[in-house]
Amino acid sequence: MKKIFIVIILLAAYADSNAQLFPTLGGQRAGISTAQFLKIGVGSRGSALGDAFVAVDNDASALYWNPAGLVQFDQNQVMFSHNQWVVDINHDFLGAVYHLDATNALGVALTTLYTQDMQVTTEFAPFGTGQYFSYRDLAFAVSYARKMTDKFSFGGTVRYIEETLAELKMRGVMIDLGTYYWTGLGTTRFAVAVSNFGNQLAPDGKVVLVGRRENSDWQAFSPPTIFRIGFAFEPYQSEDNRITTAIQLNHPNDNSENVSAGAEYSWKNIIFLRGGYKFNADEQNFSFGFGVNIPIRIAYCTVDYSYSNFTRLGNAQRFSIILGF
Fold first, then answer.
1. Would you say 304 and 317 are in contact if contact means Cβ atoms under 8 Å apart?
2. 64 phi and psi, to 5 degrees?
3. In terms of C-beta density within 10 A (0-12 exposed, 13-18 middle, 19 or more buried), how is residue 171 classed?
4. Which of 34, 60, 266, 272 could make an SS bond with 221 (beta carbons 3.0 to 4.6 A apart)?
5. Any alpha helices (H) in the chain, and if so which ranges?
6. With helix as H, strand as E and coil as C, how does 187-204 read?
7. Structure pTM?
8. Residue 263: beta bridge partners?
9. Tens digit of pLDDT for each residue in 150-191?
């Protein structure tokens, strides 16, 4: 007993001094992929749940998280999301989902990330040359999903991306694949999604350096492919109240594996309270948010907000609105 107590004390002291008990395995892969804006989550609801959303996704944000989720709801939806990302970067998403029938759905989505104009600096003009440049990312996606049975659904997305940095442009095409399965045991379900699968990308264009030197030879990098597997269920639900819980394993190709967990409380499907946490993630840890469902004459409107905390970079706040018809 005494030995066990000593071991517990040593482990607690180690964890306290090193911030985490287990090493961040895979961190050496950081920085090996490009088009990083594709890793930024879409929608306030999923972000409030700590990104543990692939097995929960039953709204238009499935266009980003898991295309198989497009047939997990019945309404045609239009969604807009604005994300005030870290260091004054703006991230916007616009998507629409149309149900062809009870088993097939189509969707389109547009994602942008952009900054304000920035001054051009050189070795000899560190405070600016009087010229300005801009940075902008763009992604346009088309998705299709089909409900194969009453329990199993499958979906896919084809996404064109374009990244602009001053005179340089990078273009590419990527694919998302997703599945969604209801186990038949209560409300338990799990989902698997692979996002941003494609060829390596390299910029086009040339840059004129000091002394009129030119550089047009750029290295190619892989897209930020990520594999997600999630599990969700409702531990409690009644006519007026519902609690949804989710846990998700994330395996990116350019960083350590991490685990996300989240929970959502719903009152009469009108008011929603949410919270989540990311384990073994370098920067982001906790998140929370809320939402309200506002029925109107011709449709229903859901407004959501989320706050995501970062250990060194501050925070990110998202606002999203979904219109269902």
1. no
2. -100, -50
3. middle
4. 34
5. 2-18, 44-48, 62-65
6. CCEEEEEEEEECCCECCE
7. 0.85
8. 245, 275
9. 999 999 999 999 998 877 889 999 999 999 999 999 999 999
